[in-house]
Amino acid sequence: MPPLIDIRGVSKTYETGAFRVEALKNVSLSITAGELVALVGPSGSGKSTLLHIMGFLDRPDAGEYYFAGHPTARLPEGRLAAIRSRLVGFIFQSFHLLKRTSARDNVLLPMVYTGLGTSAGKALDCLRLVGLSDREKHKSNELSGGQCQRVAIARALVNDPLVIMADEPTGNLDAVSRKEVMQAITGLNAAGQTVIIVTHDDEVAAAAGRVVRLKDGEIVSDETRRPPARAGAGTAELPPARLGFSPSEFAEQLRVAFKAIWSHKMRSALTVLGILIGVGAIISLMTISEGFMKDMLSNTSEEDARTIVVSTRYGSGKSPRPVTMADLETVKAGVPLAEKATPVINRVLKVSAAERNTRGSVTTEEGLTPADAAAGRNPLGNLKINGRFFTDGENLARARVAVINESMEKKLFSAGDGLNSEIRINDVAFTVIGVAENKKGEGMVGWPVAYIPFNTAAKRVLGSAKLDQISILAATPGDAPEARVQAINALRAAHRLREDAPDDFDVRTSEAGIKIFKDVMAKLSLVVYSIAGISLLVGGIGIMNIMLVSVTERTREIGLRKALGARNADILIQFLVEAVVLCLIGGGLGIGLGFGLAWGAYFLIKVTPALGAGTIAFAFGFSTFIGVGFGFWPAMRAAMLDPIEALRYE
Ligand code: ADP
Ligand code: MG
To answer: If you placed Cys at 360, which of 66, 123, 448, 539 could pair as Cys (CB 3.0 to 4.6 Å)?
Structure first.
């Protein structure tokens, strides 16, 4: 019968600073399947070291270890984890149960790391085997020491290991519990289970069929009292390294993450705050600026898209050349694509009513043609008008009629009282014949506007025909760019500009205006996003800090999980999941905060917040990114922990 465990000339030396401890010196030992072997010897003789090597928790410095017929020296981490998971059941002196976790869930834990799914029925079977079927739901802190150790035995059994290894399993127990635990162990062995047990309890050793005595890292005696009750096969296939993650493992990782977060509520809340504020800032800015953009763009009608504006060019160094009526004639004659060209005066003037006055924009129009009126058009991008717009006849007659916007009405009258009232512009009396809805931009800042006929403005209000703008309406929006080129050429010719001289006027399509608007918004956003980014960076550092604390606090738990078969990757992902869950909580609350802030802003500046799916996806994506980015280093530290050192961590 080949041995299940065959150790040949194994040595292990610990070096701590100046000290050198030869924990194992050239030890050879073979154990057959079905044996119950007691490793005894004084404290410090190397028993635990030998057991850890046999249990794949540690590697020897020299010598060979054949397990189930296979050499194991060159197995990679993933294979070792698979062997710990499937072939070895380890029991520790101090139980190492998961805190505040039920007996059943503790027993289920090794199944999580097989990747084959968990079976509550199997866990219950194992609890029954150690006499604890009635304690399934009890948490580790609700069980006695002996019961805890029996849960740990059930946990060691749950994956049907080839061998159970126990390191002083009765060391922390009273006499009664010791008996219970030993009964459980000898019972298992009687059923054929191979057991290796480290002890310095003579009673325990007496129960073993074979006693191996160590002293100073060497085997000094090896005594078989009786052969195994049932000898098993000494060879088995070693399981392959596990790839990927099973659903039950992912569920476990989520459960552990939430538990860790929930059991430190205050700390988690403070950590989440940084992410919450950062994401909240970004979301509020995104929704406000997107809403602003949407409002502005929804305000541009087809007519706006057809409009080209000629205006005075400022800032060229030379004194600016005003736009004149002569330019209007040039445009009318020289731009065939123009449906019409109109002069515009646009000034900020004093406007008063009986008791109140204000400063606001006074803008001119040439009035509706009978055809416009018949088609129900108005020159304000079809905003609703209470009353009517003035006609081209009134323009020719220099009539003193005005259309005011709601903001102007609000400044000068009580709401609804504006229509048919009298206002004075530069001390010229006008009758209000229409009150128009605010354009979006005007509404945001409450900007007052009055529209009056061009001829009335030129002849009666200002006494001059100096223009501020010429407004050209192209036949279609598609004609606007070409019409703009025609206007430029006509004006350059009329102004007799040399080929290399720059334009002495400005010609803009609304598209160009929108582009400028978007550019400004983009620059503004960049500034604001960098500030929000800094806040997220600070939040991320908070996450990293708390994750490092969490890893340190749970060092022993990490060691335990590894001893039960968790791979480095399993530990890495577990802590990444925790960091990401923290960030997603922050991100989710941040979306709420940001949207709340954006609605608060709505009441101040009347921009309807636009919360798109893109914004939400961005916030969650970004939170995940921060979680992974800042959680990676702490998670990596956890993953790289040595199982035995982690288990020993105080
Ligand atoms: P036992 O279990 O028989 O009491 P151990 O196998 O735990 O003995 O330890 C054997 C020797 O190795 C002891 O002298 C101990 O101090 C030393 N030793 C064990 N683990 C370490 C370690 N991680 N670092 C340094 N020395 C160690
Ligand atoms: Mg020991």
So the answer is: 448
